[in-house]
Structures are given as structure tokens and as C-alpha cells.
Design goal:
318 residues, mainly alpha, 15 helices, globular
Length: 318
């Protein structure tokens, strides 16, 4: 596969996942601000912008301003609209690889973006974010249902998995900055679409240990960090099927730097208990964010043409 096509598919996976996760995070946090009369809107908005890597403006920040920056800013690939437009632009360069259904889905979503601002004004932000989640779920389903399990699909799922680890780690960082209150865990679980599954798994026992264990270590929930790292590791392994003589796997270690980075991050979570992880929570989350950046660089060096990657902008805690 051409490196250009592989790179486009990798970024389609990342951008669609970024749009969905950003819509989830914004929807839940804005709803929480409206429901909590004691919440400091300025502080909450600046903290959310910092977690998402968007420099907060010097002037006062409101919820409407956050929706504009993280939801509707067409010039930023970190916003919902910008990420969906970037996914469609990458799909234009890989039309011969993705399925016709997937291209039509991405194209229809892109044509729906000009109505996004009007949808927010007429129906509210919740209707817009629900539309984004539905479109992203449709795109993920079309990719899984209509693409062969070849290299193209592996790069797309690899991008989706790396972005999911990054977004979940950033989301968990909001809990650390909020001071670790139980309502914050409730917000985090809802932001990940995990609330109902968590309740069924732990029968309503919401505390720090169970919530952290579920979002970091659960093997069966696809949005947990461990599950996403495992999916990325499986994709990288399948992309390197011939590590030794005669097409057999190599006898020592793994074939690529990206495999080493992802495998090290997975085992660092897998063989540490939830209480141990919680005791070192800030450094664990920072390590996961560094892991995503390092994997992105290693994958780019190994498989893609040498172009600068799209990076999150680090920002201090508000």
C-alpha cells in the first residue's frame, strides 16, 4: 500500500474518533454546567479548553465561546467541525481504498457541516452533538461492515485506537483537575458513553477505584484505555506479519518501535492494580499522553511519508 494512502486512512480513523469524543465531552460538560448552579462557568470552561489542548483566550470565556472553539471552529482540526472536514479531505485522497458507502457517508457528513451552526442556533447544542455522534457511529459501522480486513482497515483502526487512548487520558485528566469528586467520575463515565455499562458491571457502586478500573483496565469495554491499546497493538502486529525467516514471526522481541511503545504501555497498565494506578494517577495519565505522541511519531516514521503530524497544543492548568 502506498504510504500516502496508509497515512490518509490512519488520519481518517483519528479524526472521526476525535470528532465523536469531543462531541461527547462537550455535551456532557455543558449539561453539567447547566445542571449545577454552583459551578464556576469561567473556571470550568478554561479547564476544559486546557485539557483539550486549545489555548484559552485572554478575554472571559463562556460556554458559548467553548462551543465555538471546540465545536464549530472550521480552521482547527481539534474542533468537531474541523476534524470531520479533515477526515473527508483525507478520504478524497484514499477513495480507491475506502468503500463507496464509507465515502458517501463522509461526504454526506461534510455537506451537513454548513448547517451545524444553524442547527445549534435553532435546536441547541445537544441536538448538534447528538447528530455528530450518530454520524460518527455510522462511519465507524460502515468502515467495519464494508472494508476488507486488509492493511487499509488496519491503519484506520490503528488511528481510531490511538486517538481513543489519547482522548480518554485527556478526559481522565479533568478528574484530577477537579479534585477527585464522585460527580466528576459520573461526568467522565457519561462522556465516554460508559455509564450504563459501568452500572451493569459494578451494580451501581460508584467510587474512585471502580471507575478508574473500568475506564483504564476493563478488557471488554471498547473505550477503555487497555482495550484501545490492545486493539492498536493487534493492528501493529498484523501490519508486520513476517518478522523472521520464511515469513515466520521473529524469535526475539517485536519488529517495530511502535509495537514496543504500545506493548510497554499496555503491560504497565495490565500488571498494576487499580489502587496502585490511582496513587500515581497524574503521572500515569501524562505517560499515556506521551505514549500516543510517541506512537504517532513511530508509525509516521515506519509507514508514512515524512510530514509533520497534527499535534495537540500543550497548555497549563487553568
Amino acid at each position: 500500500m502506498l504510504s500516502r494512502i496508509a497515512e490518509s486512512l490512519y488520519w481518517i480513523g483519528r479524526y472521526v474518533e476525535r470528532a465523536e469524543d469531543t462531541a461527547r465531552i462537550l455535551d456532557v460538560h455543558l449539561h453539567r454546567m447547566l445542571a449545577d448552579p454552583w459551578a464556576d462557568e469561567e473556571t470550568a470552561c478554561r479547564s476544559l479548553l486546557a485539557v483539550m489542548g486549545v489555548p484559552p483566550p485572554e478575554q472571559p470565556v463562556s460556554a458559548a465561546r467553548v462551543v465555538g472553539l471546540l465545536g464549530l471552529d472550521e480552521s482547527s482540526h481539534s474542533s468537531v467541525v474541523g476534524a470531520l472536514a479533515a477526515a473527508r479531505e483525507n478520504a478524497r485522497g484514499a477513495r480507491e481504498t475506502i468503500s463507496a458507502d464509507m465515502w458517501e457517508g463522509l461526504n454526506a457528513t461534510w455537506h451537513g457541516l454548513p448547517d451545524a451552526r444553524r442547527r445549534v442556533e435553532q435546536q441547541g447544542v445537544h441536538a448538534f452533538f447528538r447528530w455528530v455522534r450518530e454520524r460518527c457511529a455510522l462511519l465507524a459501522g460502515l468502515a467495519d461492515a464494508t472494508m476488507s480486513r486488509d492493511e487499509g482497515w488496519l491503519f484506520l483502526v490503528l488511528g481510531r485506537s490511538v486517538e481513543r487512548v489519547d482522548m480518554t487520558a485527556r478526559l481522565l485528566s479533568t478528574h484530577v483537575r477537579a479534585g477527585g469528586s464522585i460527580p466528576s467520575w459520573l461526568t467522565l463515565l457519561r462522556s465516554c458513553g460508559a455509564w450504563e455499562t459501568f452500572l451493569r458491571t459494578y451494580r451501581g457502586s460508584l467510587d474512585d477505584r471502580y471507575a478508574a478500573e473500568f475506564l483504564l483496565l476493563d478488557r471488554l469495554f471498547p473505550r477503555s484505555v487497555f482495550a484501545a491499546l490492545s486493539a492498536a497493538e493487534a493492528c501493529l502486529t498484523d501490519l508486520e506479519p513476517t518478522g523472521g525467516p520464511g515469513g515466520q514471526p521473529g524469535r526475539v522481541g517485536v519488529a517495530t518501535e511502535a509495537q514496543r511503545i504500545v506493548g510497554r504501555a499496555r503491560t504497565n497498565l495490565e500488571f498494576r492494580g487499580a489502587e496502585e494506578l490511582l496513587a500515581d494517577f497524574p503521572s500515569v495519565l501524562a505517560s499515556l499522553e506521551r505514549t500516543c505522541s510517541q506512537v504517532n511519531e513511530a508509525v509516521s516514521r515506519r509507514y508514512f511519508r515524512q510530514t509533520s503530524a497534527v499535534l495537540w497544543v500543550p497548555e497549563a492548568v487553568a
